[in-house]
């Protein structure tokens, strides 16, 4: 456990409200247009935590622990309060206004009775703030810390069933979104993230990825034109990595990828992750997830739509990898190409039959 007592930053010479900050830092690029995420190092955390928490009027925090993925999440203790300070990397992949959209969605879900963490506004009422780090400005958001334990990965079938129940519960509570609200990902497009289209830069995999994107986009167009219900605001990344086992239930975290879409799309995102683990060890997590979901509400995903939505997710993640250019990119592209090749072959055969 990393424990660092953060000193209180000096008082400004002219105290007053912090001016509004942009919700996302501008992406930065390195040679050849390759964009890389940059997360703060442990040595930088005391300064960042102190500077950020001052925007919430909090001082003298202890850093209890740090978790890194796309974001860096710092577990801080201030007095007897346990909070999560989420520090986004300099590379923004979400639409402007995503932090405010996340706060609004969490407030709605909490009002509907869902157990979700809440966003703590800054002293000037903003959902997030930016602070200067050693490599540039980073965006910080303060949320409730969810006590509990991480779900093991790969998840157990029991965890997958609980994840299905949670997914269905969130779908029941999700607000409808007839028009595109600002700040959320747009489920009408295969490439939902707010980043450039880099599929053509995937080398030998480029033709496969482009063909998969075209086929999946046609299926998405059909889904959106024929859906019997209006779209909803969904989690957008409900996987075992984004839930916490708290007591006898799973609590969702990290709604940063909030998606305007249909429940089928949200379910497919979860299944892509669980199916990868099932393929590795012959497990039955996908079946358990469906059983858990159906214990709460009817299963939304039909066999004819499922392969297209799974392909859309793989193409989306491949493109994101090409934008971020993190280590392991070649393996990342190989993984998604293997998943997409049978889909493209089937889609091509179906098109020829028509």
Automatic annotation (TrEMBL):
GO molecular function, one term: transferase activity
InterPro entries registered for this protein in UniProt: Aminoglycoside_PTrfase, Kinase-like_dom_sf
Gene3D superfamilies per record: 3.90.1200.10
Aminoglycoside phosphotransferase domain boundaries: 71-299
Record keyword Magnesium present: no
Biased segments, Pro residues type: 7-25
Keywords: Transferase
Region annotation Disordered: where it falls in the sequence: 1-40
SUPFAM superfamilies documented for this protein: Protein kinase-like (PK-like) (SSF56112)
Signal peptide as annotated in the record: none
Protein name, per record: Aminoglycoside phosphotransferase
Natural source organism: Cellulomonas carbonis T26
